[in-house]
Structure formats: C-alpha cells, structure tokens
Amino acid sequence: MCGIVGYVGSQSALEVVLAGLRRLEYRGYDSAGIAVLADGGLAAARKAGKLVNLEKELAARPLPTGTTGIGHTRWATHGGPTDANAHPHLDNAGRVAVVHNGIIENFAVLRAELAERGHELFSETDTEVVAHLLAEEFSVTADLAEAMRLVCRRLEGAFTLVAAHADEPDVVVGARRNSPLVVGVGEGEAFLASDVAAFIAHTRSAIELGQDQVVELRRDGVTVTGFDGSPADVRSYHVDWDASAAEKGGYDYFMLKEIAEQPKAVADTLLGRIDASGALSLDEVRIPASELREVDKVVIVACGTAFHAGLIAKYAIEHWTRIPCEVELASEFRYRDPILDSRSLVIAISQSGETMDTLMALRHAREQGSKVLAICNTNGSTIPRESDAVLYTHAGPEVAVASTKAFLTQLVACYLVALYLGQVRGTKWGDEIRAVIRDLAQISGAVERVLETMGPVRELARSLAHKDTVLFLGRHVGYPVALEGALKLKELAYMHAEGFAAGELKHGPIALIEEDLPVVVVVPSPRGRSVLHDKIVSNIQEIRARGARTIVIAEEGDETVVPYADHLVRIPVTPVLLSPLVATVPLQVFACELATARGNEVDQPRNLAKSVTVE
Ligand code: F6R
Fold it and tell me: How close is the Cα of 598 to the center of ligand 1, in Å?
C-alpha cells in the first residue's frame, strides 16, 4: 500500500519520479505528490485523487528542474484523501520533505510533543510528524541519514520512509521497518522504490533492504546501516524480468493482459521442478526431508484470493499426503492462539510477499517453533525472506489490483508442495506423482482453450450489468472457486456477490433466491465422485424451481446439466483436484467484463490497493 519513489542522479528527477509513480499507482491512488531539490531549495506539489490530477497540477504550475527528488502515491490510512493529507509532508521551514508507507503508531504522542515545542502541523496524517522530527535532528547533525536513524529509533509501527533535505541536495535517504523498500543501483544514479517496477526501465541491479535499516543514496553509491548506525550486510540481486512485463502490451487493462498470460504463468511455474529421474525437486524448499517426514499438521495462512488458493490446496494436501490441513485467514490466525509446534508446517501464500497480516501470522508461527514455507510471486520480498523455505510462483509482475494469474500459479505451487510432501513421506508412488505432473502440464493448454471461448461469457456479463446481486455455488474444490468468483465480482463490479457451498443453500441462503437472480454454479466433474455431481444437479434444480437464472460451469461432455442451465459455460475435462485451474478463468473474465460494463476502473477498484502492508 502506498507507492514510494526516490531518485538521485543526472536525469530530471521530476520525470524519473513521475514515471516510477505511474508504475506504482496500483499500490494506492487516493492522492499523489512529488518534491524536487533545485536551486538550493525544495519545491513540492501534491494533489488529491489519481496521479493524473498531480500531472495536471504540474502542467499548470511546473516545478523547477532538479536531479534529486521523491514521490508518493497514497492509499489513505490516517486522514482522508485530501490535498492537505497528500505526501510529501514538509517541515515548517519547507527544507525537508518526507513520504511514507505504513502506520506510525505513536504519532499522537510525537505530535503533541512537537506542538509543545512550537511546531505547526497542518495535516491529519501520522507522517507529518516525521518531517518535523527530521528537521529538528538535522539542525543538530547536518546529516540526513543520521537524522533519519535518530528519528526511526523513536517511531513505533510499520514504516517505509524516504526523505530529502534542501541542505543536502545530492542525497536521498530511506528507512524500512516492516514495509517494502528496494534500492536500484544505476550508472551515476540510484533509486528507491516500494517495488522494482518503478526503476526497472533504468536498472535491473537491485539491493534488498533488511528490517530496521537506513539507506543513503548518492550518485556514486549507496550506504546501508542499521537504525543504530552499525554497517549492514547488503544483498544485491538481478531483476530478471524486463520493463515490458510491467506494461499493458496493447490490452485495455492490466487485468485483461494478466488473464491472458495465465497459460504461460502456469507453464512457467512448473518449469525446472522435475529432475532427470522424473522426481519432483523443489530447489528452494530447504526444509530437510527428515523434518518434512515428521510433520503432523499443515496450516495454511493467507488473505483474500491467496486464502482461496489455500482452501483448494487443503483438498490436495489431505488427499495426497493424509496429513491434516487447516486453512486460516492470516488476519485471524495469531489472535486465536493456534496450536502449533515444531511438527506443524505452516504454508504462507502471498503474491506480493508483503501482506502484513500474512507476515504477522508467519512470525507468530515461527515463534511457536513451526517451520514456515512461503509460496510467493515476488523475489526478495519480506515473506519469503522471513520464512524457512520458499517456492516461487513464476507469474511475472501482477499489476492489476485483482489477482488472477498469481492465483492460478499459487494453485500450481500448492499442488507441487502437496506432491512433494507425498514424495518425501512415501504416501504417493513415483508413477502417481508423474501422472499428476503430466496432468498439470496439460493445464496450460486447457486454460488457453477456455480463454478462446469467452465471447459468450463476456456477452452474458454485459447483459447482467444492471443486476444488484449474483450468487456463486460450488461443492468440494468448486466451493473455494465459488468464493473466488464472488470476491472478484465484489471488488471489481461493486455488486453484492456471495459464494456458498451448494449443500449449505437449504440451511438459509436459499431464501435469497428470487425471480431472475443470477446464480453461477460450478459443477464438479461427473467422472469424479458421481455423488457430488448428482447432488449439485439437484441443487441447480432447487434454485431454478424458485426462479433463479442459472449460469452453469460444467465440463465438456457433461450433458446432464443441459436441461437446467439457462447459460452454459464449458470447461475442458481435467482431473477433479486440478479443475479449479480451469473453472476459475471464466469467473475472472465474467467479473472483469461486468465491471467494465458498469463503467468501473478495472485495474484500480475503489478503496483497494495491491500489496496490503497494514493490518
Ligand atoms: C483479490 C486480491 C486480494 C489479495 C490479498 C492477498 O483479487 O488480490 O484479495 O489476494 O490481498 O495479497 P497477497 O497475495 O499479495 O498476500
């Protein structure tokens, strides 16, 4: 949440920072602002609303040209999305500017102290106190990095801070605790950003910042220290995707592009995970096989769409390994005092690798002595770094706020982990594992075929744009798919959408059914457990008898559903446990099209942001 950019170099800081903010706007779009050091002073502009408002402001009232600058795109926490609350925040002399991601929990105390010392604060934010504290410390130290270290030691909460001071015109300083911040190192220039996407057009050489570290950026180098001033070990890495991966590539929305990229994302996530003997070899899983054999419980923690991936993973893990598996919303996990010990394996699923709820859950699990395996899409992010092992999904950067390709690859990674557990524990034979891997290898083509047949789904979505409610039903692995379909519709189309286990309908929700209410039903394969299939066909009849308009997602060749489907969406034949990989795709397309038909911003739905770095 919130996108932050800092730049020191020889290019126009305004242009570099604005281009970076455009790439980070998915992290928040309540307001945007920029500060540039030029002509011995500091000039800033801030505007409520999307970045385009700031760009208009800058066109009307240009800032002087400088080569050092910082910028911010905001997801509001303290204080509404107004000009006054937009970052950067300045001290009273207008010499220091600061941008911030996170929450400073003790800001009220600090604010009262500053007021007593005669400072005037103009915003409702927690951030503004930092500008004033930095100004005070700088007046003593005349060193922005040292001022930042001193201030950080007084702050509580989670924060990424980036600051610039008019008296140190070739320096930008950043600090990090529990919120993401990466450094980009170029030729005679350096960058700071919440995400490498902001500087990938300039350099692919990056440095991870650790917890409680301060970084000082100058044209000729970067210095990293702890909050206490001790020198820090620096881990550099090469960013292995290029700038075009973060462009729309001719699609109207990132979401459409990312939906279309799913066949490749699924195939890429399988790449290199089978050794010459045909056995699974998950390089990044560094938990010794002997420890995995001792595991007596798997607990999956995740949020939102990643949580739905976890719900589906449970079916595969329990079926293939016979280890009990719990799936828990990360935000609830540590508060219920979960029973964990060294024999529990906790799997943390996160696209961004920065979700605070998931991070806190995994920290809690490690404190209890459990091993944590992360399934993550973002190299070098906090969640994999704090886990005992990681399995990276290879979805490439996901920019649209609504998760699509990351979800499918999270599923693939979960299946791989389940099979791997089955392999090391001997609950699955080698040939059985190879058979599932062969099935997984077919999925990319199956998703491709689903995508080729989405015309009628789009048309149907457009015809339902005036509706208020859509319900989703599923059984077995189709139930989490129904939950995911409903989540996509809520967040994109702002419609009342709910997913139910089809069997639960008669216990209450069936009262919601009324004439012409659209109900999407995810039908399990008739080739799996036929009892599941028969039961859901009965459920479809029950809701249809009460007036529902049924939208049935069923496997090719399943003719039994035809008489009860007002709209029929066909998906390719796939093994039951893997079927969510294809069944979810029409629901993504449906939500995206419905949102477009309702005139909503598909990539940046209201009130949301990607990478949720607050609890
Ligand atoms: C929904 C969506 C969110 C995320 C959730 C977890 O489309 O994207 O529900 O899935 O915020 O995010 P990560 O996976 O980054 O931890």
Answer: 23
Per-residue burial over 206-222, b = 16 or more CB atoms within 10 Å of its CB, e = otherwise? bbbbeebbbbbbbbeeb
**pLDDT tens digits, residue range 335-380?**
989 999 999 999 999 999 999 999 999 999 999 999 999 999 988 7
Q: What is the 325 CA–ligand 1 centroid distance (Å)?
A: 21
- State yes or no: pLDDT of 240 exceeds 90: no
pTM value is 0.85
Q: According to CATH, where is 3.60.20.10 located in the chain?
A: 3-246
Domain 3-246, CATH number (from 3.55.50.30, 3.20.20.80, 3.10.180.10, 3.60.20.10): 3.60.20.10
For 351-421, where are the E strands, in sequence order?
371-376, 389-392
Q: Kindly state the tokens that stand for 132.
A: 């004033």
Give the Å distance between the CA of 308 and the centre of ligand 1.
10
> How many angstroms separate the alpha carbon of residue 217 from the centre of ligand 1?
32
Place of tokens 């309540």: 30
Please name the fold of domain 254-451: Rossmann fold (3.40.50)
Give residue-wise pLDDT tens across range 422-464. 999 999 999 999 999 999 999 999 999 999 999 999 999 999 9
**Residue 289 CB neighbours (<10 A):** 13
User: Where does ligand 1 bind, in terms of residues with CB under 6 Å?
Assistant: 303-306, 350-352, 355, 358, 402-403, 487, 491, 611-612
Domain 455-597 part of CATH 3.40.50.10490:
yes
Greater pLDDT, 363 or 103: 363
Which atom of ligand 1 lies at the shortest distance from residue 305's CA? 10
Q: Is 592 a catalytic residue?
A: no
**Has 56 been annotated as catalytic?**
no
In sequence order, what are the residues at sequence separation of 6 or more whose Cβ sits closer than 8 angstroms to the Cβ of residue 68?
7, 8, 13, 36, 37, 164, 169, 170, 171, 172
Question: In the predicted model, what is the mean pLDDT of the chain?
Answer: 94
The residue whose CA is least distant from atom 11 of ligand 1 is: 304
Of residues 130 and 244, more confidence is placed in 130
